[in-house]
C-alpha cells in the first residue's frame, strides 16, 4: 500500500513518530517527509540513516519522557 502526500501538506510542521525506524513506524515517517515535515523519531536502537529525519535514542529505563526536549 502506498500513501501519497501533497509536497507541501506538512511544510513547517514537526512530527514525532515513536518507533519510526522500522516496520509500521518507518512506513509512517515516509509520507510525512514527502509532505515536507520535519520528522523526529525515537527508538531503542540506532537506525540506518534516514535522510531528513532526526533520531533520538529512547531511554526506556523510566516511564517519563520530555517531548519538549525533542521539539
Question: Can you describe what's shown?
Answer:
It is a single chain. This protein has 71 residues and is of the alpha/beta class. It is 23% helix and 23% strand. The chain starts with 13 loop residues before the first strand and ends with a helix. Strands 1-2-3 form a three-stranded parallel beta sheet, with helices on one face. It has two helices and three strands, in the order E-H-E-E-H. The protein has helices at 23-34, 67-70, and strands at 14-18, 38-43, 53-57. The relative contact order is 0.23. It has one domain (14-70).
Topology:
Blueprint: E1 14-18, H1 23-34, E2 38-43, E3 53-57, H2 67-70
Parallel strand pairs: 1-2, 2-3
In short:
The protein is α/β, with parallel strands linked by helices and 71 residues long. The protein has helices at 23-34, 67-70, and strands at 14-18, 38-43, 53-57. It has one domain.
Number of helical elements: 2
**Strand and helix order:** EHEEH
Largest sheet: 3 strands, parallel
Strand order of the largest sheet: 1-2-3
Give the helix level as a range of percent: 10-25%
**Could you list the spans in which at least 5 consecutive residues all have pLDDT below 50?**
none
Q: First CA to last CA: what distance?
A: 30 Å
Briefly note the structural class of the backbone. alpha/beta
Number of strands: 3
Task: Tell me what portion of residues adopts beta-strand conformation.
Answer: 15-25%
Count of structural domains: 1
Shape: globular
Average the pLDDT over all residues and give the rounded result: 76
The Cα radius of gyration reads 12 Å
Amino acid at each position: 500500500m502506498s500513501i501519497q502526500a501533497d509536497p507541501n501538506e506538512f511544510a513547517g510542521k514537526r512530527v514525532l513518530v515513536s518507533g519510526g525506524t522500522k516496520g509500521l513506524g518507518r512506513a509512517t515517517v515516509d509520507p510525512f517527509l514527502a509532505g515536507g515535515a520535519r520528522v523526529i523519531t525515537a527508538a531503542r536502537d540506532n537506525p540506518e540513516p534516514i535522510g531528513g529525519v532526526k533520531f533520538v535514542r529512547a531511554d526506556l529505563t523510566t516511564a517519563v519522557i520530555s517531548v519538549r526536549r525533542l521539539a
